[in-house]
Amino acid sequence: MQPRFETSTEKKLVGERIEMCFSDNRTFELWRSFMSRRREIQKGTCSDLYSVEVYDKQFFDVFNPERKFEKWAAIEVTEFDKVPDGMETMILPRGLYAIFLHKGPASAGANTYEQIFRVWLPNSDWMLDDRPHFALMGEKYKKEDPSSEEDIWIPIKPKTVRNSVEKMPISE
Q: Does 106 score more than 80 pLDDT?
């Protein structure tokens, strides 16, 4: 499993969020609510969907499935001038990401995440950066279809300063 690397631009998102933990996964509830209202959002940049997780700095130090984090269902917009009632705004900051392609049903995503966090990341020259993680679900995303595809964006930074110049991807 090898990622591609990309420095993302800042993105403006509008959507819904909830607090949850892995042991009480409320992702379905969040997306059911958001999808029923997403057409209310004006000035969307495209039809891609963002599933965003915001973790505190120590979240991955010692994994605890009861630890809370923030989960968003959102779309990218050009402006925040007309946000539907009950929805919120978020700015995804610019930054470097390792991007992994998940192929297969959404329910099998846990296997991809396990490979990222238990195999790839510990054996790489990278560490997590303190920015939101997200999955980008574009036109090839088909929920539980075996041919479904989505990109998983993991915020990274070099493990050492010395490696930062050598490992910094060029693409923007």
A: yes
Determine contact, residues 127/10, Cβ cutoff 8 Å.
no
| Half-sphere exposure at residue 104, Cβ-oriented, CA atoms within 13 angstroms | 8
Q: In whole angstroms, how large is the CA radius of gyration of the chain?
A: 16
- The residue written with tokens 């599933």 in the block is 51
* Architecture field, domain 4-167: Alpha-Beta Barrel (3.20)
Phi, psi angles (nearest 5°) of residue 111:
-65, -40
User: Are 149 and 141 in contact, with CB atoms under 8 Å apart?
Assistant: yes
Distance from C-alpha of 131 to C-alpha of 100, rounded to nearest angstrom: 17
- Residue spans of the domains in the chain: they are 4-167
Task: Return the closest-CA partner of residue 130 out of 22, 58, 51, 50.
Answer: 58
Q: Name the token pair of 141.
A: 């995303």
Record the tokens describing residue 2, joined without a space. Answer: 């090898």
Are 53 and 70 contacting, i.e. CB atoms less than 8 angstroms apart? yes
pLDDT of 172 above 60:
no
